[in-house]
Amino acid sequence: MATPTVNIRQDLPPPGGYQPINYKRIPAKTYMSGRTMFLIYAFVQTSACFIWLRGDRKLTQWKVEARSGNMATIPMLQAEKDRAYLKVIRKNRDLETELMKDVPGWEVGTYYGDKIYWTRPDNEWHDITTNEYFVHAYKSDLNYHCNFFKYL
Amino acid sequence: MGIINTKPSETGTLETPVLRNPLTDAFATIGFHEGTECEDMEMNMLDCYEAMGPVKGREYCKLYFQDFMECSRKWKQLHRVGDMRRERRKQWLKGLMGQGPRVPLSAGCPQHDGVGTEALNDTNK
User: Among A43, A54, B58, B70, which residue's Cβ finds the most Cβ atoms within 10 Å?
Assistant: First the structure.
């Protein structure tokens, strides 16, 4: 049986042999020494510290300003709130006077002549309940204002 | 008074309990109105009852007791509200508040803002 003649080139090393394997470590390029890096680090940190301190001082100033504004305006706002509250109570009293004038035994500000608090001075203030605040309004108004936080 | 009552003191005031632990003061206010708006009235009532005793206290401390219960439960104020609402509805049904198809039952919802219409309309007051 005749073997066919085929041109076969076997993979062989190049003439002269392979190059030597490069097993030497190639270190990364060094831009600066460790001492320089530490110096730069310290410089950056100190600069950032100064910048941060400057911003913190500014922030403290803003906070003090805002707090001063709050402390200056809160008494006025609270007084206005109390004023509106007292106005509503006065209006309620007038409406009660007008409404209950025909009811026998009724005295304004009392429960058929019974004082709300017996042992307290007459001029001493006591807050009224929410139901009494909305006494001349619809009950839906009362419910709306009591449940308003649920809509938020 | 604590868990165990010793003999009553000469001053007649409440004594410190025999068994004390760090939680004694923390849980001492449970069941009382200390720290609320009614603490003064409760204290008046308790002082009166302590001085008068339970039997005479029913007569002498009646107003203190009623004030304390009013502060706690507010039945008097709530009955006032109910009576006023009932009276208003009665007058509304009778037609005393005006004849017409749409007479409101309420006298208006209170506008409780300092810069609202309520404040602007009543500047002369």
Answer: B70
